Amino acid sequence: MKKQAKNKRDSVSVLGGLIILGAVLGCALIAEYGTKEEIQIPEIYYTPPSQATIPNLYDPENGSDSDPSVDTLQPADPNLTDRNEDGVIDEADLLPREKYDLPYPQTERPEDVKAMIVQHSARSGYEYFDNSVFLGDSVTLGLKNYATKKRQTDSYFLGDAKFIAVGSYSVADTLVPLESPNSIHSLYNGERMQPQDIIARMGVKKVFICLGLNDVGIYTQKEYLTNYSILINRIRKEVEDVQIAILSVTPLTLEGERKTLYNERIDRYNNVLAAFAKEYGCYFIDVSQVLKNEEGYLADELSSDNYCHLEPTAYDAWIDYMLTHCIPTPEEEAAIADGNQGPLHIDKGIPEVEGWEGSAGEP
Q: What is the value of pTM for the model shown?
């Protein structure tokens, strides 16, 4: 009986020791995980549409802005166009702006937004694009195709820049799980992957993002920027010391505007995107400014489809703009940060821009 009691006490002691040891190890693991998980990725609050393609934005059911009073589309003013022989307006002859009474686009950025844009710099060579990747939609896919063709005669065209470009891609689409039936992610070395994982595999340190034409007509500004913040957090979590530059959403031609996707709305999204980039520790490169005509529309001669896609001459202007509006090197960035005694390009005191109510580091 004494031996059985002793064995029982020994068993309890061992069990108690294991419980204590497990608790200690658990706390250690939690503490270690907490130090490594510096960037928190919030849940996605919106379900990305299964067919967020640009042509579908003809559908009047697609989306509305965060401020309904801004995007309430009224019938066109009969005085805007001629009537036919019967005195009836032929809607087929109306411009989208007339048909939906769309507001006019901006011909230049507001002054407070101009201050948030990457400024003119000394012209760089193609080495500026070394160790970089362009992440974007069909407009970026056009840039990839143009670069591929140019590299047949100039192997160092755009340096060693790489591309993750998918037709109809949106910021929302970048967040879709791989196993989702709505996933349209790119392949990398034969494997379908989310963009942050491709960027990590590529080993690049500079990311140029050009996404929005497939978001602006569907999502509110808050939804768009929240999704953008999740994408940026995921990239930063996978790639240490990455530099992220956000390119402006490119414009549409006068005849290419849609009921829910039009230039003035793109302008407003770009304005808040510039503020978001500055506050979120990114750069904002306003390439759309060299693609617009004097009325604020995509210049006809730069459009390949009288809509949103671009001619080679447009990509020449795009590239020239980027080479004369360069973000600083990591070394220059560190020096500027030291001189400012704080992080570079993260400024919680930015001028208020309607539509973005964020705080640095928090989507």
A: 0.74
